[in-house]
Amino acid sequence: MSAKRPPPDPIAVLRGHRASVTDVCFHPFKPILFAGTGDGELRLWDTIQHRTLSSSRAHIGAAGIITVATNASLGDKILSQGRDGTVKCWDISDGGLSRIPLVTLKTNSYHFCKLSLAKTPTCSPQLGKNLSSGAIDQLNEPGDYDKNCEPKEKTSLCKEYHDGISNGKAQEGTENFSCISDTEVISDQGPTLMALAGEHPSQVEIWDINIAQKVALFPQIYDSSSSEFSKKSQGMCMAVQAFYLSQAQGYLNVLAGYEDGSIALWDLRSPEVPVCSVKFHSEPVLSLALDGACTGGISGAADNKIMLFSLDHHMGTCLNRKEISLGQPGIASCSIRANNKIAATAGWDHRVRIYNYRNGKALAILKYHSATCNAVSFSTDCKLLASSSEDTTVALWELYPP
Questions:
Q1: Using alpha carbons only, how large is the chain's radius of gyration in Å?
Q2: Do you find a cis peptide bond into 201, omega within 30 degrees of 0?
Q3: Cα(46)–Cα(119) distance, rounded to whole angstroms?
Q4: Domains along the sequence of the chain with CATH
């Protein structure tokens, strides 16, 4: 029997950062990688020529960058989230970073939780066929959850958001915590929503980047006498993943991971209590990623487990699909490739681990980095994986050609 092939080396190592590279993400259409660092630098890398395209000190001082994020609706724009309580939107349409941000959102959130842009479900041949319109309608029927998770009637905040936000109508009970440095619309495709940990450590806030305004939060009423969820001690929100329930209806859902190891599924139509809440981990949940269909995902935490889970939107449940035990604790980031074949995790033990997303089988352990791995991200064309580390480097990998 032939010996197993050794894990591959990175095809390129991007050097030049002066501090820990805290997060990375790929441009949705172009061969560009965005990287944010602990000293506040936002850098654009050319993933073909492996050189710097542009660099800017996006967040001043020792606060540093927590997250960099973009998606197809943002196009040639990139978000940077700093530990200075701000989220900034930058334009790169001229081939480099704009001198000043288009928008600066003063979120007043000083946590370690990375923001999440709302993810839209996509068709994946590997998962079978796309949802039919009838199935989509069924998923979005408000009464489809079981009796223990039945959504309540929309609150005035959420109803007004869905009914009036496209007309620029302000919501009652929300405040504008933003500073807009340019009147340009960030996206002309309707609301561009993001979720992030709120000013209150257990709350999740929803912001519309287009109008630079906070539009909702979970739980909406943080009062131990009015919410069963609030009576529990989940601790701080440590990870979020926002997604639309379906392409047809566009209702926003949010997965939130908490300090006590629990994960809650929230529906914008019922912000007082979660659709469901499960506890897969014994330590704080640090990372969440959803697959292309938004019907399942992967979670990592400060314990020694990785969890593959499934979401049943019809029943309103989140179920454990596969538990993967680790020799060393700590998963800082996880990502699922767009074709839903493989998933990657970034570990405190300096390792990047690759798994078969369908069955959880371990495929490879990538050992290039010499310090904690902070983030992993797949390119939208499935050809590249980027990993970043406290060793100030970014590694590019080619794994299992799509």
A1: 20
A2: no
A3: 25
A4: 7-101+335-353+368-402 (2.40.128), 117-325 (2.40.128.630)
> What are the Cα distances from residue 326, in Å, to 212, 304, 307, 356?
41, 5, 11, 16
pLDDT digits (tens, 9 = 90+) for 28-53: 999 999 999 999 999 999 999 999 99
pTM of the model: 0.83
The three-class DSSP label of residue 311 is strand
DSSP codes of every residue in 127-181: G-SPPPHHHHHHHT-TT-S-TTSPPPPPPHHHHHHHHHGGGTPPPTT----EEES
Reported confidence tier of residue 342, pLDDT bands at 50, 70, 90: very high
Q: What are phi and psi of 229, to 5 degrees?
A: -60, -40
pLDDT score for 129: 31
Q: Averaged over 65-83, what is the pLDDT?
A: 94
Task: Report in angstroms the alpha-carbon separations of 384 from 80, 154, 252, 278, 396.
Answer: 22, 42, 29, 33, 7
β partners of residue 306: 300, 324
Distances (CA, A) of 117 to 1, 72, 140, 153, 209: 47, 10, 21, 25, 10
Q: Identify the burial level of 332 via C-beta atoms within 10 angstroms of its C-beta, where 0-12 means exposed, 13-18 middle and 19 or more buried.
A: buried
Token digits of residue 288 = 């969440």
Cβ contact 121:292 at 8 Å? yes
